[in-house]
Amino acid sequence: MTVSSQIDQPGYDAARAVDDDIATRWASDFQARDGWLAVDLGEEKEIGRVWISEIEWPETREFALEVKQGNAWKEVARGTTIGADKDISFAPVRAREVRLHVFKAERPINISEFQVFSPAK
Ligand SMILES: [Ca+2]
Q1: FRET label pair with 53: which of 36, 37, 46, 100, CA 20 to 30 Å apart?
Q2: Distance, CA 25 to ligand 1 centroid (Å)?
Q3: Cα-to-chain-centroid distance, residue 40
Q4: Cα 26 to ligand 1 centre (Å)
Q5: Owning domain of residue 98
Q6: Ligand 1: distance of its center to the CA of 114 in Å?
Q7: Phi then psi dihedrals of residue 16, to 5 deg
Q8: pLDDT digits (tens, 9 = 90+) for 82-104
Q9: How far is the CA of 54 from the centre of ligand 1 (A)?
């Protein structure tokens, strides 16, 4: 897990966004209005869906899902709001690293869960 920034408080580290617990979350620096959260799957896998849960009030206004291809990030999906229950499917792609890139948020970024799946069958 790598993130663009981190709030200066314990208990909100990046790993909280992938701990399968909706009650815990990653929080960006309090001043941040953009940023990203990247997940390393450990090996290249075919993926085609993510599930994202933001904190209970929607803060994100513009975001993209990106996968790393070589040294560059490639956009596979784009959206505006996220909210508590956002399921996004996209054209299947092979990648090891997946990133939620928030371009614009109303408040600091708070992501409770960011889960990556193989393409829906
Ligand atoms: Ca969590």
Answers
A1: 46
A2: 5
A3: 12
A4: 7
A5: 2-117
A6: 8
A7: -70, -15
A8: 999 999 999 999 999 999 999 99
A9: 10
pLDDT in tens, 23-68: 999 999 999 999 999 999 999 999 999 999 998 778 999 999 999 9
The yes-or-no verdict on residue 121 having pLDDT over 80 is no
pLDDT confidence of residue 114: 98
| CATH code of the domain in which 87 resides | 2.60.120.260
Q: Which two tokens stand for residue 85?
A: 């229950």
Number of domains composing the chain = 1
Kindly list the distances between the CA atom of residue 52 and the CA atoms of 3, 9, 70, 71, 72, in Å, as whole numbers in the listed order. Answer: 15, 23, 25, 25, 23
pTM of the model as a whole: 0.95
- Checking if the pLDDT of 71 tops 90, the result is yes
CA–centroid distance, 112 to ligand 1, in Å, is 4
Ligand 1 centroid to Cα of residue 110, in Å, is 10
How far, in Å, from the CA of 6 to the mean position of ligand 1? Answer: 15
Find the Cα–Cα–Cα–Cα dihedral 83, 51, 28, 33, rounded to 10°. Answer: -50
